[in-house]
Amino acid sequence: MPILSTSEQDLGSLVALLPDGDRSADRQEAIELAAYLISLALERQRLADRLERRHELGRLAKDLAVAANEASTIEDAMLTAVDAVCSAIDWPVGHVSLFDAAGDLVPTSIWHLPDAGHSDRLRHELIAYVSSPELRTRLSEMVVQRRSAFWLEDLRAIGEPTALDVSSAFALPVMVSNQVAAVLEFYSDRDEARDDELLELLTDAGAQLGMAIERKRAQDELQRLNERLEASNRELEEFAAIASHDLQEPLRKILMFGDRLEHDASGQLSESASLYLERMLDATRRMRRLINDLLAFSRVRPSALTIKRLDLSALIGSVIEDLEPQIQNHGADVIVEQLPEILGDELQIRTLFQNLIGNGIKFHHPERPPIVTVCADRHPNDDGGISVHVSDNGIGIEPEYFERIFSLFERLHGRQEFEGTGIGLAICQRIAEHHGGTIRVASEPGCGSTFTVRLPASPEDIGEAA
Amino acid sequence: MTSSPHELDILMADDDEDDRQFAQQALKESRLSNRLVFVSDGRELLDYLRHEGDYKDPDSAPRPGLILLDLNMPRMDGREALEQIKADPELRRIPIVVLTTSRSEEDIYRSYDLGASSFIMKPVTFDGLVTAMKEIGAYWFQLVALPPRDFT
To answer: Which of B101, B104, B126 faces A259 most closely, judged by CB atoms?
Structure first.
């Protein structure tokens, strides 16, 4: 009596020994029913086994994903993966090989070995075994050819025999950037049937592991670049400190001695000599200002940012107090409209508006006293960002200079007309950029200019910019 | 016997020969009667104050009423000298005015944290230096009551 599954698959046969030779229809039916019940039980057991295996493989898939994503180094991720596979399918040995720069598949020291007391000897023999040129060549060829998990057959023909007496093996290539970067190898001393379900699952796991490695390498690269950037920033800061002391020192001496010369020897110098001395000292003072301004510019660093919530009205109010001498001098009027709170570094935002409002007063039109207006609005696309506008009724700027005015030491006027080194707007732009924002100008020559600073809403944007 | 403030020395620690000369001339012009003595680095400053090294004879190095301290000096810089003087119970009461070309905020914070009495950036004109000397003298030797000390 055949025992058939529900899908008519032959599961075995039921042989009934009937001593009384009763071949009645009832007997026949009873035997068929028995065969059917047995088939149900068998099928149930098979389903239970398959379900159990599915569970195991599911757990393995999860373990491998965790290994891929949580390991701190690539080696850790591979070791955890090898351990997870070995314990999930109960295989004694796992090992990792890597492709080296020359394109050879080289064994590593990453092993999973059975707990047996002879594991030192075993490891020794296994190293010899997996390093054998035959196995290397075969593994290497198949890995490049298959690019997915595969069963290694006919192993007895390969390499030296070991204490493990390898009978079965399979390999899992780990793909990074579409290239095989590593191979996880598994060996058993039992004759294991090829398991396609397992191979499929491992191919997926290999892909995940590869992506994790890729991510990890990108992270490492990013961290390396970051460290280099930080080192170069530090160097720049050190340079600024050295420049501040070492360049200013001789300059201060020139000024001091020149000053003494001007006072002590003024009667003895001819008119032209006095004039030369005066011009020399003027140039020295200008150089001093340039160095100081350059240092002020270099000190506007992202690393020095302390971002907090700022009441822009209060901040602009105190900027205006500081500018009081200029305001009085030029009979200026500074009008401040309702201003919102913003996120930023207090010192830098202060410097930004001090420069902008100061410029509005400084570059005033000869025929009218300066009027500077500060107002703000939210970005029209409602990303929560804010634009602050500083407008004046001054001399204005020709459109062709709209970009150039933000460059370092860029000046549009003679020193006799307007003093300064041309550092202010370069600093403004740097501050705006460090806050993840921008600065733009709109102007009508002869009528006035409007500088607009756009600042993002969230500190994350500021952090990214920094 | 207690000495009058006008007889107290000003001790200037500065490695720059020109600056020492400027200070001497500015002091003369400011009509302060105090004597200005010089050391050229932090190490020498501590030797002077502790009567060690070249200053074993206490008469060669009377306790100054005020120290003018440069920050950037060879061997031992002003920051370290400041720290050591302020950690020394014998010396900590001597007021120290930092007089430096440094304009870094960090140096300013740090000098005050270490116990400096004032922080002055070196003036860039001689007139500025004379004014600074006058005001330092007027403040420390006329207005302020310095810690009383017995001289034997």
So the answer is: B126
